[in-house]
Amino acid sequence: MGEETPIPTAEIRKTLSAQPLAGLGLFALFAFCLLFGIRYGDRVIWKLGIEPRIWDPLPVLMYHSVIPDGESANDAMTVTEGKLRQDFDYILETGNIPVLSRDLLDPVSLPKKRVLITFDDGYENNYTLLYPILQEYGFKALICPIVGKIDSSDPGFCTWDQLREMAASGLVEIGSHTYDLHHEDPQPPNNPKKWADGIQRRPKETDGEFQTRVLDDLQKSYDRLTEELGVSPVCFAYPYGKAEKDAQALIDALFPVSLMTWEDTADLAKGTRRLPRCTVTMDSPLFWYVK
Ligand SMILES: [Zn+2]
Prior knowledge:
This protein has seven helices and twelve strands. 35% of the residues lie in helices and 15% in strands. The chain is of the alpha/beta class. The termini are far apart. Bound molecules: zinc ion. The site of zinc ion has 5 residues, from strand 7.
């Protein structure tokens, strides 16, 4: 006969007496979630009676220019009207609903199958060719113009009147793509690392220089859009999809939604900033990105 191990009765009694307290705490947490929903940051992501739509994927599509059928695209960022219709038909067939970036701020009200269609730069063909197709399909899309191009009435870009008309239709939302930072800095010879594109900080740029060149530009794009359209923009599209840590605080303060260009499906549970986007070209069928 081996020796029996003594039972630590005092320990067991201590554990048992703590259990009702833990149970009560869990019950209180459960009741709180039931009453007030579950929040992520400042957004409600689950509420009783509402499906947790935040968990469903959100494909974000990036287009730029539209040309009439029969014309050939000069660059990969241009699609024909026919390709756009093909894509829109596919979205209809698969039961996906186009939403706007401002809709993302209330994720519980989003449709289960949704897609965010975006157009960068603000080309005039967005008004002459894209807008009639949006009206025909009843589709919504986000246009992020280079705001300075609109202010300077640059040929080939939309006018303020055209942007106002599209925004008033409710089918189009206007975001920012900077005021005048949509260019690449020349690359210094033999130093590929010293390269600053779009909003990126230049090597050795002082705080003052960065403030004037980049931060003031971002603020100006926001202010001009607000003045001309009577409503503040919600979304910022990073030029070349390149972020800059020194500009992040301002961009996040001005724009609750922002868009990059790395290819993936957006996960709203992670937030609405720096969402991935898929570039749609003549050669990319939509089933690659939208299910
Ligand atoms: Zn662009």
